[in-house]
Design brief:
The chain is α/β, with parallel strands linked by helices. 50% of the residues lie in helices and 17% in strands. The chain has 17 helices and seven strands. The strands form two sheets. A five-stranded mixed sheet has the order 5-4-3-6-7, sandwiched between helices. A hairpin with a 2-residue loop joins strand 3 and strand 4. The longest helix has 25 residues. The radius of gyration is 31 Å and the shape is elongated.
């Protein structure tokens, strides 16, 4: 029995009527679904005919062998598609491949893209069901997103450059379920400034908490992957952290983050004194020279030492590494006196993970952070602000250590 031809005029009239009624053009019951079905079936007919002609030219006897059907889903709707077959089974359709049931874009890529935007498995399930009528379990979605793990492993072990002008090192914390208990775990991150001024995330590392001992493990990994020298390392005031850096990279200068130091100070200052204390601290770290900064620190000690001895002791004990940036010109000082580049990166991670609650495993954290990081790094297209001037200053101060690596 001859198949009834597609009545385009009837379809057009019905489509116009449905448009006026406010029906959707795309989606599960979209107006365009019948037209798309007709187009795909015509395309498949053309494909099989071309294949049979090629078979005949090659001296092989082949012919049609009826049709099969399969249900396909697209962004324009869901329908039964008739697919032609050949007697020898050598026909491989290209328009709609065998076992392909989701058309228009690769389903796995779409799931990974949605996951990389911070969507939960349940959110992804709901989106796929609403938009495409697909019912995919959370377990299946997890398996699909696990396909990025080999890519993550290769990225995590990739060779690094021999020299980084500046490293920013810090940890961010996530809630993770481990052996039935929810724990706050530390994700260690390292951003390096390359010789051309561009940022690069060097690695992602996970541990139960932040410690100098584990930072030593992180730094050892960087060294094993090819890092020979670091000019300046910007860190917070974690006990033993600076010593860990200096043990592996003895020539590196360590700058403690001023912003972290001020935050820690305010934990020990009453609310009524906080504004005045902050203003006095600004006179220290914003001083135009080391001598004036030391003088301002002495003034601060005389004013607040009796009331806040812990605060003054912290500034005095940390001063050698808090004041490192005073050895450099102003443009370079602005680049290193805070850990702002990695703080900014962490803010972006938190933005996309704030609704995650508890992660099921360490690997789930690293998997999502890696995908988020790929999107973030795609936007790191420009060198560090003021880099032409900064690199000139670095070349003067560090001379051979920098210039022997520069491609100029």
């Amino acid at each position: 029995m001859e198949k009834q031809k597609f009545d385009f005029e009837s379809f057009q009239a019905e489509a116009i009527s449905r448009l006026r009624a406010g029906d959707a053009v795309l989606g599960k019951e979209g107006i365009l679904t019948p037209l798309l079905k007709q187009f795909l079936e015509k395309a498949l007919e053309g494909e099989v005919e071309a294949h049979l002609q090629e078979e005949k030219a090659a001296g092989r006897t082949n012919r049609r062998n009826g049709k099969g059907t399969k249900r396909v889903k697209t962004s324009s709707g869901e329908f039964e598609l008739e697919t032609p077959r050949d007697r020898l089974g050598s026909y491989e359709p290209e328009i709609v491949k065998k076992r392909e049931v989701f058309l228009g874009e690769d389903l796995e890529s779409k799931i990974i893209m949605l996951y990389a935007r911070g969507m939960s498995y349940e959110d992804i399930r709901g989106h796929l069901s609403e938009a495409y009528g697909l019912d995919i379990s959370s377990g299946k979605i997890s398996l699909i997103t696990d396909k990025v793990l080999p890519e993550l492993e290769a990225w995590q072990s990739r060779p690094l450059e021999p020299l980084y002008t500046i490293l920013y090192l810090d940890a961010v914390h996530f809630k993770v379920r481990d052996q039935g208990r929810v724990q706050n775990k530390a994700l260690y991150n390292v951003i390096g400034i390359k010789q051309d001024g561009h940022k690069e995330l060097l690695g992602i590392y996970m541990a139960e908490n932040e410690s100098a001992k584990f930072w030593l493990t992180v730094l050892s990994d960087l060294q094993a992957r090819g890092v020979e020298d670091i000019l300046i390392a910007c860190i917070d005031n974690l006990s033993g952290f600076a010593q860990a850096i200096e043990s592996l990279f003895p020539k590196a200068l360590v700058q403690l983050c001023i912003v972290h130091q001020v935050r820690n100070t305010l934990r020990y200052v009453t609310h009524e004194n906080s504004k005045e204390v902050v203003a006095d601290l600004q006179s220290i770290y914003q001083a135009p020279s080391l001598e004036l900064a030391q003088s301002a620190l002495t003034t601060f000690e005389h004013k607040w030492g009796e009331k806040y001895p812990i605060v003054v002791k912290s500034w005095r004990n940390n001063w050698p590494r808090l004041s490192t940036y005073f050895d450099f010109p102003l443009a370079l000082r602005k680049a290193i006196y805070t850990n702002n580049p990695i703080e900014s990166y962490h803010r972006q991670l938190r933005k996309h993970t704030k609704n995650k609650g508890v992660f099921p495993s360490d690997m789930a954290v690293k998997k999502l952070v890696y995908l988020l990081t790929k999107n973030i790094m795609d936007k790191w297209t420009l060198p560090m602000r003021g880099w032409p001037l900064v690199v000139q200053q670095l070349a003067i101060i560090f001379e051979e250590r920098l210039t022997r690596h520069l491609n100029i």
